[in-house]
Automatic annotation (TrEMBL):
Belongs to the glycosyl hydrolase 31 family. This is Alpha-xylosidase. The gene is yicI. Residues 45-121 form the Glycoside hydrolase family 31 N-terminal domain. Pfam families: DUF5110, Gal_mutarotas_2, Glyco_hydro_31_2nd, Glyco_hydro_31_3rd. Residues 640-703 form the DUF5110 domain. Residues 165-524 form the Glycoside hydrolase family 31 TIM barrel domain.
Length: 716
């Protein structure tokens, strides 16, 4: 094992000869003598880390996974999995996010940079032990020390590099469904949003826009004049966001297939022939995203759609999902033939059932696929977790070549740390269940810890049928997630905001309008998180070091100024909220109508009607918002509204930039610094404006610690 100093708080331990995943941008080069602290370490065919946890130790992190914010009490696996049943007994979902923090007398972070399976037994087999098993002999392990949870996370986010920045329109509402089957239907949906005055910035296209599910093709029959459709909707402020799947259909004369074969850009089987799997298009080959040339080649395929005016994509089935392989099918048929010759009894029945049930996403298939990398041939199993990551990178590399200074929207299903620099993620095929709304609430901060700030779940749920109350409550939560997309699975009930009744439509309209009004704040906070390597959505205990805060997993901090307390149970018209300090409550019904109330520190019961949701403004913080608009490009932020809850001094830096280019990296950005002080019932508002800010007027509402409300207009 070699040990390296990354910086004064971070050490890297290199065991064996690890694959370079490119997840970390600062790996450190100064070699020193040291061994992995905190853990008992065993290195054999696999690497094991063992730690005895104190009774009250908490474990945070592991990104996209099930259960709570504190991960203690379960076994988790890091192995990108195409599994639409996110039941509480699952161990892994679509992402491989190997960063966690041990919060005990000593607090430290651990990042395991490894491209295959890792198992985390967090007090499951033995309730006070943390056992990590890395399925291989070669890995990089980072130990990050620091005084608090937030600080450790920031240090980690710093070494993995700045996160992906989408265009500003990607903070608008996105509507999706598997599928809007024709161009006409897409246009009808777009018009519904416009006519009903429900803000919307994008419609996602699922598989049916393609011809026979072939990537980068268009169905002439269902989507004639695709370019015209893209343009017409763009003129109305709505972008078209097509899906791209990992598998490339095997079909003679299909350009992408032919080019891939000609240049050997597909993954291989044991015999060195292109690996054959089956996904939506039927039999496919998988682009070898771990090969530099293949990755760029695939990335450049996006060009045909970009030339038609497309500015955003979602990448799917990139764990990769394999419904079956020829090998798997042969094995299943053989087993069935064998079983046919035997008497059908309870044992043979289950063997028969399992022979088909276990055919998809089988480890055998992953182990019989190979990548042709710069470092030689690599078995897929050993790099499984970075396949989806490299599909995201592929698209991003393509975008950079196609239009270097433009920001494209990109989000993926499979991911690993490192991919956060190239795109966002959505959390895959959840269901329209209340249980999945609370899972969504608890998952987002852990995903933030692992660098994926542009993330969100399928709002209203993907599988199953949603009811109007769940749809309402889910929207009331999702407005705080950077990726705010409503997506539904095939055969499920429609769940657009207008798919229910007039009353529900009105509530969801108001909710989405609040989101649009909040975009100046959300975007500002997003960009500040990226630029300062921080989280956007955090658990309470990352900010408040008190024993109650660490027990609260159903309230979240959104940016620096807000705390939210969503409703996530049916028929609930209120809830208990824990306040670590006095806060200002804005119970939002209609964002134009502000009724503000100071709520005291401690446990409080708050009534929350179905048409309301709670926004808490933290003490000595300022919340900035504008007016809603039909789409982000129509937002007019010349006049902004400020709500400041000030005991003595509150300060806010409102970041902005052009929202479409990468010029912000060249310092083309603006900052409006607002400082509000209150002393003996006297107040002072100070504004410093740097850069080219469009803000001309501020409607300021100051609420003092005693609940006195002051209104002031400031012209800039
Ligand atoms: C996968 C995706 C889902 C999509 C479907 C069809 O299940 O996770 O979002 O709608 O495939 O493309």
């Amino acid at each position: 094992m070699k040990s390296f100093i990354v910086n004064k708080n971070i050490m890297r331990y290199e065991i064996g000869n690890p694959i370079d995943t490119d997840a970390v941008v600062n790996k450190g080069s100064k070699e020193v003598e040291s061994s992995i602290p905190f853990f008992e370490v065993q290195i054999k065919d696999e690497i094991r880390l063992n730690l005895v946890m104190g009774k009250n130790n908490k474990i945070y992190g592991l990104g996209q996974n099930i259960r709570g914010i504190n991960k203690r009490g379960w076994i988790y696996e890091s192995f990108c999995s195409d599994d639409p049943n996110h039941s509480p007994d699952k161990k892994s979902l679509y992402g491989a996010h190997n960063f966690f923090i041990v919060d005990g007398c000593e607090k430290f972070g651990v990042y395991i940079d490894f491209a295959s399976k890792i198992t985390y037994d967090v007090g499951y087999i033995k309730k006070d032990e943390l056992n990590v098993t890395i399925d291989g002999k070669d890995a990089n392990i980072y130990i990050i020390t620091g005084s608090g949870l937030r600080e450790i996370t920031k240090k980690f986010l710093d070494i993995i590099g700045k996160g992906y920045v989408p265009p500003k329109w990607a903070f608008g509402y996105l509507q999706s469904r598997w599928s809007y089957p024709t161009g006409n239907e897409v246009e009808r949906i777009a018009n519904e949003f416009i006519e009903r005055k429900i803000p919307c910035d994008g419609i996602c296209l699922d598989l049916d826009y393609m011809e026979d599910f072939k990537d980068f093709t268009l169905s002439e029959e269902r989507f004639p004049n695709f370019k015209g459709l893209v343009q017409r909707l763009k003129d109305k402020g709505i972008k078209i966001i097509p899906i791209i799947d990992a598998g490339v259909k095997i079909e003679k004369d299909y350009k992408v297939y032919e080019e891939g074969i000609k240049n050997s850009y597909f993954t291989l089987d044991k015999e060195g022939k292109p690996f054959v799997g089956a996904v939506w298009p039927g039999k496919v080959h998988f682009p070898d995203f771990l090969n530099k040339d293949a990755r760029l080649w695939f990335g450049m395929q996006y060009k045909s759609l970009i030339e038609m005016g497309v500015e955003g994509f979602w990448n799917d089935m990139n764990e990769p999902a394999i419904f079956y392989s020829e090998n798997g099918i042969d094995k299943a048929y053989k087993k069935i033939d064998e079983l046919k010759k035997q008497e059908l009894n309870i044992h043979t029945f289950f063997q028969l059932k399992d022979s088909v049930n276990n055919i998809n996403n089988s480890i055998d298939d992953y182990k019989s696929m190979y990548h042709n990398t710069e470092k030689g041939i690599v078995n897929h199993y050993n790099v499984h977790n970075i396949y989806g990551y490299n599909m995201t990178k592929s698209a991003s590399e393509g975008f950079n070549k196609i239009d270097n200074n433009k920001r494209f929207l990109l989000f993926s299903r499979a991911s690993a740390i490192g991919a956060h620099r190239y795109g966002g993620i959505w959390t895959g095929d959840n269901s329209s269940w209340w249980e999945h709304l609370i899972m969504n609430i608890k998952m987002l901060p852990s995903i933030n810890m692992c660098g994926f700030i542009y993330s969100g779940a399928d709002t209203c749920g993907f599988g199953s049928n949603v009811d109007s109350e769940l749809a309402t409550r889910w929207n009331q939560f999702s407005i705080f997630a950077p990726l705010y997309r409503n997506h539904a699975g095939r055969g499920t009930r429609n769940q657009e905001p207008f798919a229910f009744d007039i009353e529900t439509e009105e509530i969801i309209r108001n909710t989405i309008k609040f989101r649009y009004a909040m975009i100046p704040y959300l975007y500002s906070e997003y960009m500040k998180s990226i630029n300062s390597s921080d989280m956007l959505i955090a658990p309470l205990c990352f900010e408040y070091d008190d024993k109650h805060a660490s027990q609260v997993e159903d309230q979240l901090l959104v940016g620096d100024s807000l705390m939210i307390a969503p409703i996530y149970e049916p028929n609930k018209r209120g809830r208990y909220v824990y306040l670590p300090e006095d806060m200002l409550l804005w119970k939002v019904k209609d964002y134009n109508n502000k009724i503000l109330e100071v709520i005291n520190k401690g446990h409080n019961y708050i009534d929350v009607n179905i048409d309301e949701f709670c926004v808490f403004i933290r003490k000595n913080k300022i919340f900035v918002h504008g007016e809603a608009a039909q789409s982000t490009e129509k937002l007019n932020n010349k006049t902004l509204n400020l709500i400041a809850f000030v005991e003595n001094k509150a300060e806010y830096n409102l970041y902005d930039d052009d929202g479409i280019s990468k010029d912000y990296k060249k310092d083309k950005k603006s900052n409006l610094k607002i400082i509000i002080t209150v002393e003996n019932e006297k107040y002072n508002i100070k504004i410093e404006n740097t850069g080219n800010n469009e803000v001309k007027k501020l409607n300021v509402t100051i609420v003092t610690a005693y609940g006195k409300e002051i209104k002031e207009i400031v012209n800039i």
